[in-house]
Amino acid sequence: MMLSEKFLAAILIAVTLTISTFAADPRLDVSQIIGKTEAAAVLGEPVREPSARSGDGVDGYYSKCNYYSVRRGKSLVIRFQLPGRTAIPPQKELELLIAANGAMEKVTGVGDAAQMLITAGDSTFASRVLMLCVAKGNAFVTIGLAGFADDAIALEKAKTVAHKLLEHL
């Protein structure tokens, strides 16, 4: 039995769309992309065993990993999310964060859109936290760095981590 050209074309389109969907919707395990050695390099000192978790949740797929320095004071927190059908799209989530926090600053050169927030509890550098939130396609990435006195250095480190994750999309 011969298949018609239209039927073959329809199959080719369906396969192409399926492949494109999978390529644009990877299920990253952030702890496999940013491992313990790389986290230690980012923080500038050895880190403890990471706390990592990946899986599907109510709002879609997520992967997270927390790295803490052996000596107290520095941390790297990574979150990656692919929202489910009923969840808030990444671009909208970023807009809601901006509306809720107000003090966020636009960051260029990473993802489709990115914002950062720097908090400081007291005058010590260990209490400073930089959060970089990035929307790219259907992915939402959050990189948190704590314990850096220089915000510009912390931002560049966060952007490096974000780029490394986003290159897997």
Describe the SSE topology.
Blueprint: H1 5-24, H2 30-33, H3 36-43, E1 51-57, E2 60-68, E3 75-83, H4 90-101, E4 105-106, E5 113-120, E6 128-136, E7 139-146, H5 151-166
Antiparallel strand pairs: 1-2, 2-3, 3-7, 4-5, 5-6, 6-7
Task: Describe this structure as you would to a colleague.
With 169 residues, the chain is an alpha+beta fold. It has a single domain, classed as Protein Transport Mog1p, Chain A. The chain is built from five helices and seven strands; from the N terminus they run H-H-H-E-E-E-H-E-E-E-E-H. The chain has helices at residues 5-24, 30-33, 36-43, 90-101, 151-166, and strands at residues 51-57, 60-68, 75-83, 105-106, 113-120, 128-136, 139-146. A seven-stranded antiparallel sheet has the order 1-2-3-7-6-5-4, with helices on both faces. Strand 1 and strand 2 (60-68) form a beta hairpin. Mean pLDDT is 83; it is low at 1-25.
